[in-house]
Amino acid sequence: MGEAYVLDMMHKKENEYVTVDEVAQWESKYGVIPEESVVLFNFGWYKNWTNNYGVENQIYLKNNPGVGEDVAKYLASKKIKIIGGDIPTIDSDADPLEKAHSVLLPAGVLIIENLANLDSLPPLGSFLIATPLKIKEGTGCPVRAFAFTPKKK
User: pTM to 2 decimals?
Assistant: First the structure.
């Protein structure tokens, strides 16, 4: 859990990566992302998920945008604790080597994928809680993720 910084990347198309310059532009507008924070990327990709009697849409599962190795290194160097997005993999589906995973996980950065409704969160001021299942010796698990947002005045 932690304070969430939500970066709007809805302009990204299939197989496109977020760049370090885009993260730096976001930081110049909203402030530097501090240590121990939660960074969420809102691609709007969750809208490609459809449920037709339990069958997921292949558009969601293929060719998603993502976070590349350079952004993963940048955020890991900032000592964030969680990175997440509304995509099936934080790496673009176009990267079978999963370079972002290879950088983030050894650095102790948790990854949350398949989030939804990130477009309802403000860039700053939300607090994310993700409650995992207790799975012995697991390499991943489902979470119930929810965010508290500032009261609207």
Answer: 0.91
